[in-house]
Amino acid sequence: MRRMLAIVTVLTVTSSLAVVPADAATLLRAPGARGRSPVGSRPLAAERIKTRLSMNVPDRLVVGDRVPVTGRLEQQDRDGTWAPLARKQLDLQFNRSTSPDWNTIAAPVTDADGYYSVQVPIVENGAWAIDFADDPVNLPDDYYGYEMSYAGTNVRQVTHRTSISGFNAAPEPAGLGGTIRASGTVMFTMADGTKKPSGGATVRLQFSTDGKTWKDRAAQSPGGDGRFAIDVKAERDGYWRTRVPDDDGYLVVPSVSGADYVDVRYRTHIHQFNASPEPVKKGAAITVKGLLYRYMPAGRPGPGAPVSIYFKAKGSSNWTGVAVVKTASNGWFGKRFKASKDGYWTAVYKGSSAYLRSNQPADYVDVR
Question: How confident is the model at residue 360 (pLDDT cuts 50, 70, 90)?
């Protein structure tokens, strides 16, 4: 859900001047009242004392925190002035945005100056309401001498703490001009401290050559399962990380993943690989050859590079290294072997600190 600007409208309701019938008083109950005691169950005062109640909830509500809900209860004297109403029990209720029900979460008592303060847990989006003398049948008799008052908020949007689980940038190493995929899962911390995958918040992929100065390279909004996979072009060695920001309209506490270093190397490829002749007589010579190219970034022959030649006999699952040859100045390599049995031949360039590994699909030679 995108940020809904929570208008922190705090309602302060003051009881009416005249005697309020039970049904009418119930209608004034914003959060959905409990039933009031039937008329006649206890004697009603001819005129009740007017009261007013205020309520303050912090602007920022982070799931898992406990925050103070504060306010003041006052009564109106006969001369019209307002004075604190001390040592009175109040009823604080919360209404989850996912439920129609209001539930009591605390029963604070006002101090000598009419003030109250109570710590409440932040669980999810919802509204708060507090009332006085709304249920006198369950309170001391003197509560009948006061008219009900209440205060409340509209639905408030909460903020979630975030983290990034399982971040990885791959492949490692990566080929220059190829694709690096950064993946992971955005997690929200719940009220009980557990973490849950959650989507919606933007994930920004950042790059740094030194692990200190970071620049945004791409962004993505994960789905409901919190997973993201961002593809970028491999251009140079460096560090990758992801960040969940708080400036995209979503209510989150920012977080950053760990950094993952990716070494970018030139790609290589073995062209025109061949083992011949095919078929060949047993005891005759087999020539294995090919051309090594290095892309930096254009493809060029790779001179002086070691290439390993392997053989796997027909019916076997094991490759055996039979020679290591160096490429000539034009990138070509070749080696002659005595034909002894049917099997597969392949060549592998194992790479270096600057070049990626490459190998050629096997070539089968029938020995007769």
Answer: confident
Nearest-angstrom CA–CA distance, 84 and 212: 57
**How far from the centroid of its chain's Cα atoms is residue 69's Cα?**
29
Q: What average pLDDT score do residues 217-242 get? A: 96
CA dihedral sign of residues 4, 152, 14, 70: negative
Question: In 108-193, at which residue ranges do the beta strands (DSSP E only) sit?
Answer: 115-121, 126-132, 149-152, 160-170, 174-175, 179-189
Rg, C-alpha atoms of the chain: 38
Strands 91-96 and 179-189, bridge-based pairing = unpaired
Q: Which three-class secondary structure state does DSSP give residue 215?
A: strand
Q: What is the pLDDT of residues 185-217, one digit of tens each?
A: 999 999 999 999 998 899 999 999 999 999 999
End-to-end CA distance of the chain: 72
CA distances from 112 to 3, 70, 83, 118, 277 (A): 40, 15, 11, 16, 105
Q: Report the alpha-carbon distance of residue 263 to residue 240 in Å, rounded.
A: 11
Q: What is the pLDDT of residues 90-108, one digit of tens each?
A: 999 999 999 999 999 999 9
Measure the CA–CA gap between 156 and 150, rounded to whole angstroms: 18
Torsion of CA 55, 58, 60, 65, to 10 degrees: -100
For residue 160, which amino acid is it? H
The CA–CA distances, whole Å, from 50 to 43, 55, 119, 342 equal 18, 17, 27, 104
Regarding pTM above 0.90, the answer is no
Q: Can you list the domains of the chain with their CATH numbers?
A: 11-152 (2.60.40), 160-264 (2.60.40.10), 267-365 (2.60.40.730)
DSSP string covering 41-91: SSPPPSSPBPEEE--B--S--BTT-EEEEEEEEEEE-TTS-EEE--S-B-E
